[in-house]
Amino acid sequence: MGFWRRVIAFLFTPGTSSARAEFRTVRPARIEPVVGWPSGIISGRCWVIDGDTIVINKTRIRLAGIDAPELEHPWGQKSKWALVELCKGQTITARITPELSYDRLVAQCFLPDGRDLAAELVRCGLALDWPKFSGGKYRHLEPHDARKKLWLADARQKGRQVFSQYGARDTLPPKPGT
Q1: Model's pTM, two decimal places?
Q2: Which segments cross the bilayer (predicted)?
Q3: Three-state SS for 45?
Q4: Which one, 55, 67, 75, 167, has least CB within 10 Å?
């Protein structure tokens, strides 16, 4: 008898094995949606993931209301390191909002002197206001050429599909016909 036939016969033949009997009687648990994300305020030193994501006390947090370029896109590394310089040695306070973004908490994050991290990144021209989520709160802080410089982030906000065409090594638009 072949190996797989023996395995199938073992699994589907009633026997005296208690392990097999337990295995067959276990029903899958009902998976409930996550309802109770932490709310309120988280405070502590942070670890910067990219231009709009940080980690405080093992909790991933997305900065509310802005869009920074991904690490592999033009200006992505510069955006990350600008956020690192802002946060270095500082205790960051995150005011959690009820939204979720790719299983990350969304929060307004502040430096000890009260400056908003999102506003600082937009003011530097390394992130864009995302009016859909901010209501235009940071738009007046954008430098006049920020949307041209961060054109991939701008395209994503407008729902254009060019964003998904760029991988880790692509920095130029694809040539027609490729």
Answers
A1: 0.66
A2: none
A3: coil
A4: 167
Confidence grade of residue 38 (pLDDT, cut at 50, 70, 90): low
- pLDDT the model gives residue 42: 92
Spell out the residues 6+ positions from residue 122 whose beta carbon is closer than 8 angstroms to its own: 66, 128, 129, 138, 141, 142, 146
CA distances to 1, 76, 145 from 52, rounded to whole Å, are 58, 10, 20
**Which residue has 């690192």 as its token pair?**
84
The predicted model gives 27-44 an average pLDDT of 58
Q: What's the token pair of residue 121?
A: 């990144």
Nearest to 41, CA basis, from 117, 107, 137:
107
Q: What is the pLDDT of residues 116-168, one digit of tens each?
A: 999 999 999 999 998 888 888 999 998 888 888 887 776 776 776 665 555 54
Tell me whether residue 55 is exposed, middle or buried, using C-beta atoms within 10 angstroms of its C-beta: 0 to 12, 13 to 18, 19 or more: middle
Taking Cα atoms as reference points, which of 88, 89, 70 lies closest to residue 79? 70
Tokens representing 7 are: 């395995």
